[in-house]
Amino acid sequence: MTLQAHDLAVDLAPRRVLTGVNVAIEPGEMVAIVGPNGSGKSTLLRALAGLLRPAAGQVTLDAKPLHRYPKRALARRRGLLAQSADLPQLTTVREHVAMGRHAHASALASLFRAGDQSTHNAAIDTAMHRCGIAHLADRRMEALSGGERQRVRLATTLAQEPAVLMLDEPLTGLDIEHQLSLLDLLKELNTTTGVTVVCVIHELGLALRHFPRILAIHDGTIAADGSGREVLTTPTLRTVFGVEGCACYDLPDHPVVVCKSPGDCAAGRELPQVVTPSLNRQSLTR
Amino acid sequence: MTTLTAGQPAVATPATRPAWRRYGTPAGIVLVLVLGLALSLALGAVRIPLADVFATLTGSGEGASERIIMSARLPRALVALLAGANLAVSGVLLQGVTRNPLADPGIIGVTAGAGVAATIVLAAFPAAAHALPLAAFLGAMASAVFVYAVSWTPGAAGKGGTSPVRMVLAGVAVNAILGAVIGVLITAFADRIPAVMFWTAGSFNGRGWSHLWMVLPYSVVGLTLAFALRSRVRILELGDDTASTMGISVERTRLLAFAAAALLAGSAASVAGLVGFVGLVVPHLVRLAMGSNRLIVPISAFAGGALLLWADLAARTVLAPSELPVGVVTGLVGGPYFIFLLYKSGWLR
What we know:
The complex is a heterodimer.
Chain A: E1 3-12, E2 15-25, E3 30-34, H1 41-48, E4 56-61, E5 64-65, H2 71-75, E6 78-81, H3 93-98, H4 107-113, H5 121-130, H6 146-158, E7 164-168, H7 176-193, E8 196-200, H8 204-210, E9 213-218, E10 221-226, H9 228-231, H10 234-241, E11 246-248, E12 256-258, H11 262-267
Parallel strand pairs in A: 3-8, 3-9, 6-7, 7-8
Antiparallel strand pairs in A: 1-2, 1-4, 4-5, 9-10, 11-12
Chain B: H1 19-42, H2 50-57, H3 63-97, H4 110-124, H5 132-150, E1 152-153, E2 161-162, H6 164-188, H7 193-200, H8 209-236, H9 240-245, H10 250-272, H11 278-290, H12 296-317, H13 326-345
Antiparallel strand pairs in B: 1-2
Helix pairs in contact in B: 1-2, 1-3, 1-12, 3-8, 3-10, 3-11, 3-12, 4-5, 4-6, 4-7, 4-10, 5-6, 5-10, 8-10, 8-12, 11-12, 11-13, 12-13
């Protein structure tokens, strides 16, 4: 499903937060949205998800404006892992994931048996299995670690079986190991299921390493759009983020964005040895 | 699909809820309710043997027993049952919608609204006492509508909305205003204080079939709505953005749940007066006893009904021939039991 913004403008009273955004995200793409705090990246994601009404322009999914989709129909096509993590009371992992099936229960059935798990067991099991939380099914959410909770929330979104998966800063509050494992999981989902992934992310190094395409947002517009090498250049880092730096590709799989004078990068040797660590899969509790 | 978890060590899937809890607790609540109903019909100024109670209920009763049960005890017990169910389910809905475990029908102004209307009738128009239930219900609805209106924020392009926090704060403000109004009224009509106080503490004294018919339609509508909305209200607990992208109409769900809660609590207040504690605590009692949120709406309805049934039974028998306000009993008995459950579950450790 192609997700497209046409001349999109969004107001969050009293100011205009996004202006003239044009972007097309094709099926199966993995796109990171980066930008400094307050640049409008979360707003862009929420507008792309249909949560904000455009002040001008529109967002379309398969050429049909989002607001023309019934809510449930839209929920079957795109899922959002929102930034805030409200913890529902006394809920087991399985019950949490089952909530993702709401959009797939028929209207009448949902009146009387929504949250009913029996008809949706396969989708729920698959989502939990993909996220590596099948063994936690009967645990309470309160008893889980932050990393496990985030996987449960992701599984809940996957239970919607969306074609477009959106994530708003999903790495917040996770340690580096869980950050990497979550990103690897997204890549795996993208490869195996073909789901489109659109992710707001702060860590530029991780964005470079895990996302083939990066959108840099600055002052409510798209400042750069392309591969990591094209987007995270020294001039873009300067204008968008206000820092001096460059991406170093000396270590092929481990690009790092550093804040150091650009001359150092050309020399290539005086870079601090801050390498995004690769994941030791053995240590994951899967 | 169940084979996915094969290979996981058995300890990784602890059974958090034993079966006896899942089925035993609801069964126990229903048993307590039926027992309370039987005793409510049997006990009082005149003791009626359970055999006669059974005979009356099956249509073959006769004489004084039959008259006492059919004209006084049965309608009164049913009113208590419905009021308890209404208050408990109202609490479930409001705790979900406001995402606040301390929410109860008082928080949306229903209690204070009913209180103001009842105080006006009792203090200023004592001759119109027969209109008390209707006045209390209208007062409850008016103040709920006002709280909802205050918690609404107009947004850009006509896309306004409410928020749980605004709802709670608006309720607090409206409660303060209405509490002050009640204070002014009982100061001005000091001679009517006993009547107001007795109504305010809640009572089923003299409630009959007419009260039952009054509360029943609202109970049916409110409980049906609550049952239909229960899973949506749970999804709302995940946050507005998440619920919305899952296909929930957030504002509509919130409005319907709010309306159902107001109908339930307002109709309960109209026939029972201001019975506290039930709406706030029964949902928690049920969660603690069940260890989960499963079937929270129907089980809370039964538990709330059973609680008020027993509370009313105690209220009219413990100090017979005088009657305690039923709210006093719910507080005196329910409070300590709630603390016991909190300790047992480890919440206060």
